[in-house]
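Could someone model pyridoxal-5'-phosphate with this protein?
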Amino acid sequence: MKQSVYMTWAKYHAGAKYNLANSGILGCSLSDLTITLDDVQINGPNHEGYAPLKEAIAARYAVDPDCVVTAQGTSMANFLTMATLLEPGDEVLIEQPAYDPFLAAASYLGASIKRFSRRFENGYQLDLDKLKNTLSPQTKLIVLSNPHNPSGVNLNVNTLAQVGDLAAAVGAKVLVDEVYRDILFDEAEPVALHLGRHFITTSSLTKAYGLSGLRCGWILCEPELAERMRRMNDLFGAVGSMPSDSLALAAFRQLDRLLARTRSIIEPNQYLIRNFLQTHEDYLEYVLPKHSMIVFPRLKKLTDSEALHNLLRQYETSIVPGKFFEEARHFRLGFAVQTTDVEIGLGNLSKTLQQLP
Ligand SMILES: Cc1ncc(COP(=O)(O)O)c(C=O)c1O
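Reply:
Sure, complex below.
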């Protein structure tokens, strides 16, 4: 099927007054940015991405500008990566549970999809032995998100390096979607590309900065591959959008301030979520990472979170049913919106959990 079922749901059904389905930080308004009209350009040199923006991305993540490919959001960055690296029939290993567009894109490209699990019982860590046994000489790409969507769990750098060693042994690459990385703040490890040439990092200004509308995404990879990605992009977006890229450049100048905004929104909510989960242990089991905007609890008394989702709708509150992540008993809770909304949303969730059979 040429669609991501989750993405369609997220666009048309996730919205609610108390939106705990959203996985990113509350969107910025214009007043959150210090910009003037002089920052915006309509036309300009953007055949291979806007050079000043590529330099800003490179400087922030300590890579060479030749390693940077700009793309429309992490979404397009992921698609371009897969489209460049995968031929029909090539094997791709994708984490489970996974962000659905990973699966939809690989399937659209005719890749042969294999899975490696990140189990709740194992704190959503990787089982490297199992991963090794799933790899084969046909494997071209391993795909994972770090921090992980839906659990929010971050793999440590040694684990990631070992994934890289396993991939390198069969000539495969590792795509690490790091769209949630920057909310680890000063505890974030360097981006995955620093672990070696077979790593590819994708990210954007969406989740950690609340600038989804700019569609400022990027791929960080070794320069030869970056060049192939740019040529592949000639078939899609071809050139970047100057208004978006010039505004994104202005945003890069103030990313630290925007990250402080993010922190000030998330931290009180993390406290609320921890407290909520601890006081609902009769109903829920969970793995709550130290830094996260999302968590993926498991229902103790039901095998499917659909009923919970449906009932919550009566209270104008939304969550993501676990079925969209192939784990029906779970649900994803996002908590990077206004604290009062999180408070009311959690209150509604509490009532609903108690009403369910
Ligand atoms: C793992 C992951 N990658 C990519 C995206 C999309 O990001 P963007 O808005 O940058 O395209 C999402 C959004 O939910 C996501 O969870």
